[in-house]
Amino acid sequence: MSSPIAILGGGIAGLVLARRLHERGVAFELFEASNEFGGMARTLRYGAFGVDTGAHRFHDKDPEITAWTGALLDGAWHKSHKRSAILKFGRFIEFPLSPVNVLRNVPFTRGMRYAWDFVFRSRGEPANFRDHALTRFGGALAEDFVLQYSRKLWGVPLETLSLELGTGRLKNLSLATVLKEMCFGERKKHEHLDGSFYYPRGGYGRITDALLAGLPAERLHANCAITALVRADSGYRVTTPQGERMFAAVAGALPLPKLCAMADWVPESARSLARKLKHRHLVNVFVMLNRPEVSPHASLYVPDSDCLVTRVHEPKQRCPSLAPADQTSLLAEVPLDDATAAQTATRVPAVNRLRDETVAALARLGLYKKDEVLGAEAHVISNAYPCITLESLEQRRAAVAALEAPGAFYCLGRSARFEYTHLHQIFREAFELADRLCERRPAVQPVAEA
Ligand SMILES: Cc1cc2nc3c(=O)[nH]c(=O)nc-3n(C[C@H](O)[C@H](O)[C@H](O)COP(=O)(O)OP(=O)(O)OC[C@H]3O[C@@H](n4cnc5c(N)ncnc54)[C@H](O)[C@@H]3O)c2cc1C
């Protein structure tokens, strides 16, 4: 007998769907390749220090999702209003950019160039990420604060990137803002786009822990990598090293190219489009420090091309329990292309070399002195960011459509839909998919007990 719903992938997307189905009495089986659940949204412990697998924040953009997650955590989170900053010209410049703050912190002549380029910038309708930054900020400001950083982060020509990657973050500078700031001073602490966010007590991974706590352990299968997916008359046959199982419906939350490669009903044309989709990977370097604090910011962005790091955050600024009172830590993100990531994931010396280079780079940025370093760790996050190029929009559409074509197969989450989505959006997707799956319920058979 087939059990009703298979969930492939135990990242946040798979876990939220499992939770929503379980709350409504719908049975599922969840398969996760690694020995831990949570995917990209976990908190790691190193002795008295804790660190997330990236600079995570929970954005308060969907009231129902925020309320649900707050209840899930039993209220054990707080709203943070800490600002981020861009490290440029040896100064912390506030991010999102505030005109008065920028002019106060950059060399006078560069500031004048920003103002000139901003006033005389082209105002056409942008077709790609690069043009969007140029029409928003003008040449010089865009180059120093957006384009350099983005080249490093994405590793592809910026005119090939989709607007999807930029519109949220780059919508902050206008002549009206300049005038408002000149009359009323810089924006107040909370009036900034990137500012307020929720953060769970004890680390972002508490969201994963809370999701898991309400789920039946016997339905969660860790160390259980999906190796093949076969379409059959009665549903889908899902293969893992532990055996094969039939399911009436499947939610796939693995990276989209992987799903396409495994699904026997996906035509070669769609598979080859999916293979062209590129992810950016990360090495996260965690540095523990013998000093109480580095900077009060939520995150620090590093645009300069001569530094391998793109972003740094200090976990303690999100939750004090992530470091001892008299010590602190930093997590630096170093983007990698496919080839370097493949080498780094399998070779300890390669990852250690990157770790050591990063520790030295952060010291050169003036964030600490070398003799304050207590220790450093590095870990690879594969498929961290979907690289949304203009070309990829059609490729992902075709790949998702081919996977979902037979019906009762659904792509879910950032990795499987190849979208630059955040947690609140993934939660919303999982809520909606749970609703759809519950509508199918009369056709769904009871779970087969092992
Ligand atoms: C550095 C960084 C910072 C971020 N910051 C934020 C932020 O501030 N706010 C925010 O909302 N979001 C943020 N995100 C995004 C957020 O982490 C992701 O959107 C979310 O975690 C994606 O969840 P997912 O379940 O879709 O994918 P994943 O987490 O990738 O889950 C996929 C799962 O599938 C498993 N898997 C892979 N292959 C197989 C297989 N063959 N069989 C079984 N299982 C398999 C993987 O092990 C993984 O657990 C950030 C991401 C990164 C990388």
Q: Helices, strands, pairings?
A:
Elements lengths: L2 E6 L3 H12 L4 E4 L11 E4 L2 E4 L10 H10 L4 E4 L3 E5 L2 E5 L3 H7 L2 H12 L9 H9 L1 H16 L20 H10 L12 E4 L4 H9 L6 E2 L6 E5 L2 E6 L2 E10 L3 H7 L5 H8 L3 E11 L10 E2 L9 E3 L14 E9 L1 H9 L1 H17 L8 E14 L3 H15 L4 E3 L1 H5 L5 H17 L11
Parallel strand pairs: 1-2, 1-12, 2-9, 6-14, 12-18
Antiparallel strand pairs: 3-4, 5-8, 6-7, 10-11, 11-12, 13-16, 13-17, 14-15, 15-16
Helix pairs in contact: 1-15, 5-6, 9-10, 9-13, 10-13, 11-12
Bound molecules: flavin-adenine dinucleotide.
Report strand %: 15-25%
Enumerate the distinct ligands: flavin-adenine dinucleotide
Largest sheet: 7 strands, mixed
Name the structural class.
alpha/beta
Computed CA radius of gyration, to the nearest angstrom: 23 Å
Average pLDDT taken over every residue: 90
Low-pLDDT stretches are 189-193, 442-450
Number of helices: 15
Helix content: 25-40%
* Overall strand count: 18
Distance between the termini: 11 Å
CATH third-tier fold name of the largest domain: FAD/NAD(P)-binding domain
Overall tally of structural domains: 3
The CATH H-level superfamily of the largest domain is FAD/NAD(P)-binding domain
CATH class of the largest domain: Alpha Beta
Principal-axes shape call: globular
